[in-house]
Amino acid sequence: MTSARSTADGGRPSAEQIDAVMLTARVLVGVTARSFAAIEDRVTLPQLRVLVMIASRGPLNLGAVAEGLGVHPSNVTRACDRLVAAGLLHRSDDPADRRNLVLELTDSGRALVDTVNQHRREAIEGVLEQMPAHRRRSLVPALLAFARAAGELPESNAWSLGWTTEQPVRGTPTGGTAA
């Protein structure tokens, strides 16, 4: 895929550049898989996606979760029922609209998401420690440029990749679909 910018900057990416990014993606997928393995006896991957989404965006209603995940609301209802039963999610009536249910992480749900993120951070730190310091310094601008070129997901959508980087701003539940 060629963009006007790549042509203006000196041509198409080389096979070596593409291969390097693909290899790095494999490493990051492995980090993600290992972080999930640490908690897979407690939740399924789709359930973890729900938890990470709520951790990233704050309280949500069922319709907003379904829309964000691109699934039918009945699928979200079943997943959330299981998460409530496991003590990882709290479900309550929305005081602003009693037709909506608000989903929030419990302390246990927050701890589970934090555990996954901590495993990822530690794994990435371990890899970075194996690199010479001067390579790590040049890595930051290259990775940030790569993220920008990819359209850099706004922080509110980071849940879709399963990578949260900071606590969400607490507020009212988002999403206008009744569930």
Automatic annotation (TrEMBL):
UniProt keywords, alphabetically: DNA-binding, Transcription, Transcription regulation
InterPro entries xref list: HTH_MarR-typ (IPR000835), MarR/SlyA-like (IPR039422), Tscrpt_reg_MarR-type_CS (IPR023187), WH-like_DNA-bd_sf (IPR036388), WH_DNA-bd_sf (IPR036390)
SUPFAM superfamilies from the UniProt entry: Winged helix' DNA-binding domain
Pfam families: MarR (PF01047)
Residue ranges of domain HTH marR-type in the record: 14-148
Superkingdom as given in the UniProt entry: Bacteria
PANTHER family in the record: TRANSCRIPTIONAL REGULATOR, MARR FAMILY, TRANSCRIPTIONAL REGULATORY PROTEIN-RELATED
Protein name: MarR family transcriptional regulator
